[in-house]
Amino acid sequence: MLLFSIIAAAIAPGIALLTFFYLKDRYDSEPLHMVIKVFLVGFLIVLPIMIIQRGMSLWFGDHPFLYSFVISAGVEEFVKWFLLYHLIYNHTEFDEPYDGILYAVAISLGFATIENIMYAWFNHASLGALMIRALLPVSGHALFGVIMGYYLGRAKFSEGKLTRRFLLYSLVMPLFWHGVYDLILGTMTHFWLWYIVPLMMVLWYGGMGKVTRANNRSPFRLLKREEEVKL
């Protein structure tokens, strides 16, 4: 029973956050089966990413800066970006800017959920430890997904040089913030909380702003207003 409770606690944050961001889609909700599929893709990439990271760690060593920005954040964010670009970016369901956020959050939380289950299983984690992970790494992955998806949405509905610029931002920006997050946790043993809490506050504030701006750019916004006026 205790094991079941711990596994449930490891899964719950990812499901709760995905539900939160799904409900933030104000104008044209995505098909739930599509969101779940992308969430499950996040499950599948954990093992290949771990293998790549292990090989890179053996090859390059564990220098904190290199590990944080290249081996950890670099590999994870690139794989998520690569799959989103090839599976979702040109999909017919990607029809408003917020969809980029939702699908990027879905794949990120799928990855974070399996990571959380593995942590709980191999470290015999307490419920308290899982609560901390819900507030930090799981929500961190979700917010990196918001950043990636926001710029994917901007790229999708831009033209020319702006498209290429936003595509670059969609990879570089989440990678940067993820790297900063990992560097803090990897190098600070005593005062990390004084840095990670402000960082998470900045990410949440910025992330919610991106959610609002993405929704405001929806082509369905005016249609919904017209329907409300008619009623």
TrEMBL record:
Membrane-protein topology: Multi-pass membrane protein
Record's function text: Involved in the degradation of specific anti-sigma factors.
Broad class of where this protein is predominantly found: membrane
Subcellular location: Cell membrane
EC number(s) reported in the record: 3.4.-.-
Entry's transmembrane regions: 6-23, 35-53, 65-88, 100-122, 134-153, 165-185, 191-208
Keywords carried by this UniProt record: Cell membrane, Hydrolase, Membrane, Protease, Transmembrane, Transmembrane helix
Keyword Nucleotide-binding: no
PANTHER family on file: PROTEASE PRSW
Entry similarity comment: Belongs to the protease PrsW family.
Protein name in UniProt: Protease PrsW
Enzyme superclass (EC): hydrolase
